[in-house]
Amino acid sequence: MPPGPNLARSPQESAGAPAATAGVPAVEAEGLGKRYGARWALAHVDMRLAPGRSLLLLGANGSGKTTLLKLLSTAVTPTLGRIRLFGLDARRDREAARRRLALLSHGAYHYEALTARENLRFACDLTAVPDPRRAVDEALARVGLASRGDDPVRTFSAGMRKRLALARLLVQFPDLAMIDEPYGALDQSGFALVDSVVADLRAAGRTVIVSTHLAERGARLCDEAVVLAGGRVHWRGPAREAPGVFQALGAFE
Amino acid sequence: MTAAERVRQAVTIARKDVLLEWRGRARINAIAFFGVTTLLMFSFAIGPDARTATLYAGAFLWLGLLLSSVLALAESFRVEAENDAVEGLRLLPVDALAMFLGKAVVNAALLFVLALLLLPLAVVLYGAKLDAGVGPIAGVFALGAAGVAAPGTLYAAVTSRIQAREVLLPLLLFPLVVPVLLAAVKATGLLMLGDPMGQVGSWTQLLVGFDVVYWILGSLLFARVIEE
């Protein structure tokens, strides 16, 4: 598989890993907490991820995986704690931090009445992607939507919408990619597509965080893992050991 | 973010909103139907009293526009709430000011187009006179539409995440746009009925003043509203 297309960046940038200051973590969170009403969705989370590393997030439903990704991506402001992305304060330098990240979320961020091509082109135009037409065509081809590029998204199945979200991630090809439940609604070829996109990101030196219930599959993609339970970090360690921990956690939960 | 980048993003967002509108034409159809119905109801309520109808033609026109504007403004953020598109915009990242300007300009344009569509109906139903020419009246429409669109876009964003948004949006918006509405009604009325005292200029200046205040406030506050 070739390295990531890095459609959003110049060929020079595509060729190598993203600029990273030596010793500065890609993700650094201290005392992170998020409260919705009286309920703490996430509490006392500390984490650190070096540039170019990949992290697997495991946890049962409601364990706080999506909340953590929303916080780390700056989509949601934490109630407590501090986040630094590539040394940038996620609250104070939010715009600069956002320029280096992308979140593939449940919401998918599409406009139903626009075609797949128009949705991607819109994202390209907003981020000043060079040669957006080529970038969109390549991304659509990569995710298997080339023949449906001119169809409105409202006619798409859930799996096709997920593929389109992956295409948007490819167009952005961020320094920090956060991917929430990427396998949901996808068929077997879609599973392989997700794996290859993550592999491309990693090969290009990007930092990747993947949240999934497919522990074994996720463990094959990532270096490190965090298992969440009840909004707290239950375990952290090498990704290859995470499925066993997750399974055991499931047994007593 | 540079000013050029901001303008580029605002234009991209405005273009997307126009494209979405063109695809569905849901908003323009809904607000046109609502506006026409409102003007017809006022006409029936007044009955055969042609003098009263002509006297208040400007007021009826603006009331129709104001009531229709709620539909238009709410819809402008419904499409952003769908599939969390607004979160996608924030994370790209799109500048909050660019987002506000892009959306508010399209909302103002939509209200302006509706005003132009309703004007012939006001002539037919109320005997509204266009002796001053369509140009000056269209100018007042543009200023009034801008005065409603700026706070309307801000409040539409505020209420887009609330379940009772259809109720809350007019509750928040209507009191705020009373000065704009008063100035627009007076200026339109004077242009239709004649302006022997030369008051149109004063009302237009007031309209411009509120437009400037609302657009500045909207630009400053939108970032706080749009971020969770």
Describe the structure.
The complex is a heterodimer of chains A (253) and B (228). Chain A is an alpha/beta fold and 253 residues long. Helix content of chain A is 35%, strand content 25%. Chain A has nine helices and ten strands. In chain A, the strands form two sheets. In chain A, strands 6-7-8-3-9-10 form a six-stranded mixed beta sheet, with helices on both faces. A four-stranded antiparallel beta sheet of chain A has the order 2-1-4-5. In chain A, α4 crosses α5, α4 packs parallel to α6 (158-172) and α5 (132-142) packs across α6. The radius of gyration of chain A is 18 Å and the shape is globular. Chain B is mostly helical and 228 residues long. Chain B has one domain (3-226). Chain B has helices spanning 3-24, 26-46, 50-55, 57-81, 85-91, 96-126, 134-159, 165-176, 178-193, 200-226. In chain B, α4 packs antiparallel against α6 and α4 (57-81) crosses α8 (165-176). Classes of the chains: A alpha/beta (253), B mainly alpha (228). Chain A binds chain B through residues 73-77, 94-95, 98-99, 101-103, 105-114, 118, 122-123, 125-128, 152, 172, and chain B through 1, 5, 8-9, 12-13, 16, 19-20, 23-24, 79, 82-85, 87-95, 227-228.
Summarize the structure.
The complex is a heterodimer of chains A (253) and B (228). With 253 residues, chain A is of the alpha/beta class.
Task: Give a topology summary.
The complex is a heterodimer of chains A (253) and B (228).
Chain A: H1 11-15, E1 27-36, E2 39-49, E3 54-59, H2 65-72, E4 80-85, E5 88-89, H3 94-98, E6 101-104, H4 116-126, H5 132-142, H6 158-172, E7 176-180, H7 188-203, E8 207-211, H8 215-221, E9 224-229, E10 232-238, H9 242-252
Chain B: H1 3-24, H2 26-46, H3 50-55, H4 57-81, H5 85-91, H6 96-126, H7 134-159, H8 165-176, H9 178-193, H10 200-226
